[in-house]
Amino acid sequence: MNTEAQIQSFRQTYTALREEIGKVIVGHDAIVEGTLIAVMAGGHVLLEGVPGLGKTLLVRTLSEVLDISFNRIQFTPDLMPADILGTNIVMETDGGRREFQFQRGPIFAHIILADEINRATPKTQSAMLEAMQEKSVTAGGEIRKLSEPFFVLATQNPIDQEGTYPLPEAQLDRFFFKLVVGYPSAEELTEVLTRTTEGARAAIGKVLAREDLIELQKLVRQVPVASHVKDYAVRLVLATHPKSETAAPVTNQYLRFGSSPRGGQCLLLAGKVRALIQGRFNVSFDDIQAVATPALRHRLILNFEAEAEGITTDHVVAQILKDVPKDAAMVGV
Questions:
Q1: Domain boundary residue among 211, 242, 265?
Q2: Is residue 88 part of a domain?
Q3: How many domains does the chain have?
Q4: DSSP string covering 238-250
Q5: What are phi and psi of 70, to 5 degrees?
Q6: Does the structure show a pLDDT above 70 at 332?
Q7: 175 and 263 share a domain?
Q8: Are residues 18 and 149 in the same domain?
Q9: pLDDT at 161
Q10: Collapsing DSSP states into helix, strand and coil, what is residue 301?
Q11: Which residues make beta-bridge pairs with 91?
């Protein structure tokens, strides 16, 4: 298949996924697009929003349109790492002997819905770290590889923080995107009420098989990035580092720490997916700018002044996008 045909196939698959998800999810176009971009780039997603906005429903719907295995883990304060990873249990053999056998936990699936991930203790949250980064788990003294593809789609509630455990920066950094789910408009709310109170349930079909999804992920990696576009992504990441020569003014004013190199990886990979969605086999400046906020918002740590003034990381990213020129020749001018 030539490049043009591959791009067309990618766009058709993406459109089919959007249409099937749209049969269940009303509105939230940016959230659905961001989730699909992360999935096609092979990354994990953190969905943040108040209860009842459809975060869990979106993940469940995504698992239905992708022909891969799915497990849901409800995070609670009494959840233990073994409840996620699995554990060795004593089994009796036919000969009457007893031996340890490893019983796999729910982490052994392609899509994991980590519902209300900030409800679990740090000890349990840390059980996800190895799985998210290494695509493997260590349990019972053995390292067990997880099946590819592997995605963690986590939800968290930004209100009612009593009894919750905010995710540490190391775990936040492992999420490809952080997507903030907002309230629906009047028209969207009307449609939601119509769909959910009249007894009808939309039938959605499988769109993408496991092998085809892996092939799409390989195609994303092949999309070229011109040196000047890659340089722009690098300068955006470096502009988030306070007290450095490359720091943007807003960074020195409001940030304690900036983005890790994973932020740059996300900018480029998400930019590649967005380019393919729009029918291009090259990444543009606009692609990088469009994905900058979900890629960087959870990788920036605000200082006291920002918190006192109610400044958000979204505000900082938006200002950095204004301050950092696309043309490297303009730096310092």
A1: 211
A2: no
A3: 2
A4: HTTSTTSTT--HH
A5: -145, 135
A6: no
A7: no
A8: yes
A9: 62
A10: strand
A11: 99
Separation in Å, CA 138 to CA 37, 88, 134: 29, 12, 10
The answer to whether the CB of 142 falls within 8 A of the CB of 130 is: no
User: Given the structure tokens 């999309």, which residue do they identify?
Assistant: 223
Question: 279-310 burial by CB neighbour count: b if 16+ within 10 A, else e?
Answer: eebebbeebbbbbbbbbbbbbbbbeeebeeee
Q: What is the CATH number of the domain that holds 248?
A: 1.10.8.80
E strand map for the chain: 45-48, 66-67, 70-74, 86-92, 98-104, 111-115, 136-139, 142-145, 151-156, 177-180, 208-209, 255-257, 301-302
Angstrom CA distances, 35 to 87, 97, 294, 326, 332, stand at: 31, 49, 10, 27, 36
Q: At 199, which CATH number?
A: 3.40.50.300
Q: Which of 141-149's residues contact partners 24+ apart within 8 Å by CB, and which partners? A: 142/102, 144/102, 144/108, 146/107, 146/108, 147/69, 147/108, 147/109, 147/110, 148/110, 148/214, 149/39, 149/42, 149/68, 149/110, 149/210, 149/213, 149/214, 149/217
Range of the domain at 230: 223-330
Residues 158 and 241 in one domain: no
Q: Are residues 50 and 23 in the same domain?
A: yes
Where does the pLDDT of residue 225 fall: very low under 50, low under 70, confident under 90, or very high at 90 and above? Answer: very high
Domain boundary among the residues 159, 181, 211 is at 211
What would the pLDDT profile of 166-220 be if each residue is shown by its tens digit?
888 888 999 999 999 988 889 988 988 888 887 667 788 889 999 999 999 999 9
Comparing CA positions, the residue from 117, 121, 206 lying closest to residue 153 is 117
